[in-house]
Amino acid sequence: MGGCRVLGQAWGGWRRGLGIRATPTAAGFGTKARHQLQRRGASKPSDPPGDQPFPGLLRPETFSREELVDVLRAAVVDRKGPLVTLNKPHGLPVTGKPGELTLLSVLPELSWSLGLGEQELQVVRASGKEASGLVLLSSCPRTASRLQKFFTHSQRARRPTATYCAVTDGIPVTSEGKIQAALKLEHIDGVHLVVPVHSPSRKDIMEGVKKTLSHFRVVATGSGCALVQLQPLTVFPSQLQAHMALQLCPVLGDHTYSARVGSVLGQRFLLPVESTKPQRQVLDEALLGRLCLTPSQAARLPLHLHLHCLHLPGARPRDPPTELLAPLPSYFSRTLQCLGLHYQ
User: Fold this and answer.
1) How far apart, in whole angstroms, are the C-alpha atoms of residue 344 and residue 91?
2) Burial of 21 (0-12, 13-18, 19+ CB in 10 A)
3) Which residues, other chains included, contact 286 with Cβ-Cβ below 8 Å and sequence gap of 6+?
4) Whole-model pTM above 0.70?
5) With contact defined as beta carbons under 8 Å apart, do 113 and 75 qualify?
6) Are the CB atoms for 193 and 205 separated by under 8 Å?
7) Distance, CA of 253 to CA of 255 (rounded, Å)
8) In this structure, is the dihedral angle defined by the CA atoms of residues 170, 20, 302 and 106, taken in order, positive or negative?
9) What is the DSSP letter of 8?
10) pLDDT one-digit tens code per residue, 288-323
């Protein structure tokens, strides 16, 4: 590969499980990012939990290009050879329409900011807009191509390469299992939404319906919620949110697909997709109390879905696999603390 070397050393010590503590952390953001939050009126770290419901939450849509580059530079969690790993904040889209502020749109400035000169970074793997967590970038096209082929081959072989952490409103019936569903994108009331398709025909598959698969494992439960480890084995927009809604356990902060889960006398059921529109997630009073949130604050609850770990191949065929890790956002850790969700 010449000057393009892939990681040959593991980033850190997560070999089994999540390796999470419920204590809030800095979430991979540096001093400059924290100063920007404070300039925008964020609560001080010493405030009581009820006064800072979403500590460390960044609002990328309020940043200028220069501020976003500073935030992303502060969010770098590691660099090895041509690879740069970021801990992406919630709400930052990777791609978008021309003129929109996205991760892709500021990569030239970020490359210069990191001292790469004309070796412009490109996206190898990234979490979606509403999710937080790992973004893998490469300044070497050959390394990027090699890793993208690895991800494609792993997907075809049904080998997981990404592990997400999620907090769910509700507890899955089984502690571990697979979720299979045929999904398609539909344009409903001006919004692109993912909808399930029951018993898809060959025609449906030809018209964009995809059979999707995810693995889940419940790590901890408490207060009617669960800390869940999710591994998508296929790639589809909003796959994990749609899958957890089908399990009647929507992701906390899912203001799109949680509306499909209804409840009567404590018994949950799926509502028809045709009759449910996206709306702010409604949490019961007991859960609001545990989270120390008012209903208006809960309406701004960020999606608790975090790309925590990526599995990469070693630099050489006999080298052990590499794991990239991204700490949880502070608001995510605060939620775990409020709900008493501890990982042993």
Assistant:
1) 30
2) middle
3) 223, 224
4) yes
5) no
6) no
7) 6
8) negative
9) -
10) 999 999 999 999 999 999 999 999 988 777 788 889
